[in-house]
Design a protein that fits this description.
This protein has 77 residues and is mainly β. It has one domain. The protein contains no helices and 5 strands. A hairpin with a 2-residue loop joins strand 1 and strand 2.
C-alpha cells in the first residue's frame, strides 16, 4: 500500500466467478504498529508502518469472500 497525500493505493490481485462489488478497507493504529485491537471499528490516518487490510467481494444480497491481512504502508512524499 502506498500513500500519496490524501490518496492510498492498495494493490491486490483477485479472481472470483461470483460477486458484483469489491470493497477494500485499510485501518491503522496511531503509531503504525501491528495492533490486534485495530480490527475493531474505527481507524487512524495512514502513515508509514502496518495497516489491517480487508478485501471483500460482495453480491447484491450477501458477503461472498473476505481476505484480511497486515500489510506494510509506504508513504511517498
Amino acid at each position: 500500500m502506498h500513500v500519496h497525500g490524501n490518496v492510498a493505493d492498495v494493490h491486490v490481485r483477485y479472481s472470483c466467478d461470483v460477486g458484483t462489488h469489491l470493497w477494500v478497507s485499510a485501518k491503522q493504529s496511531a503509531g503504525g504498529a501491528i495492533d490486534p485491537d485495530i480490527s475493531a471499528e474505527g481507524s487512524g490516518q495512514l502513515q508509514k508502518g502496518w495497516a489491517w487490510v480487508q478485501v471483500c467481494v460482495t453480491t447484491d444480497e450477501d458477503l461472498d469472500a473476505v481476505q484480511m491481512a497486515w500489510a506494510p504502508v509506504v508513504v511517498n512524499s
